[in-house]
């Protein structure tokens, strides 16, 4: 059963990455405003239902997942600690949360390239 879960997770991650890659490439090529869910689904060969299982909207696929927040355990640990390096500890828990959220740096870079010139 563990193998099936691992395979399922890998397939899900590959599908999510494929949809995001298609959407980002289309947005870079045509402009964000000219890309629709239908276009993304047709090009990435997925149904709208599949698209919406992964992303809630065109904006969602372009922006990626919502910003990561530290886990309750990390937040409780930060609050409970009385260390002298508060800023260092805070940076550590934020970095941990962020790195667990967007492991694909190539998608992150494309998102940044797309969003920087048109932050709205």
Automatic annotation (TrEMBL):
> Sorted alphabetically, which keywords does the UniProt record give?
DNA-binding
Highest rank taxon of the organism: Bacteria
InterPro entries per record: DNA-bd_HTH_TetR-type_CS (IPR023772), Homeodomain-like_sf (IPR009057), HTH_TetR (IPR001647)
Provide a Gene Ontology MF annotation, just one.
DNA binding
Protein name in UniProt? AcrR family transcriptional regulator
Portion annotated as DNA-binding: 36-55
List residues of the HTH tetR-type domain: 13-73
Task: Say if the entry is tagged with keyword DNA-binding.
Answer: yes
């Amino acid at each position: 059963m563990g193998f099936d879960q691992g395979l399922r997770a890998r397939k899900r991650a590959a599908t999510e990455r494929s949809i995001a890659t298609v959407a980002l490439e289309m947005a870079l090529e045509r402009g964000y405003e000219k890309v629709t869910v239908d276009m993304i689904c047709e090009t990435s060969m997925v149904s709208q239902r599949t698209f919406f299982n992964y992303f809630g909207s065109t904006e969602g696929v372009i922006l990626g997942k919502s910003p990561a927040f530290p886990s309750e355990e990390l937040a409780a640990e930060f609050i409970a600690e009385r260390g002298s390096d508060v800023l260092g500890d805070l940076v550590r828990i934020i970095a941990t949360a962020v790195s667990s959220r967007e492991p694909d740096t190539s998608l992150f870079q494309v998102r940044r390239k797309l969003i920087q010139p048109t932050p709205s």
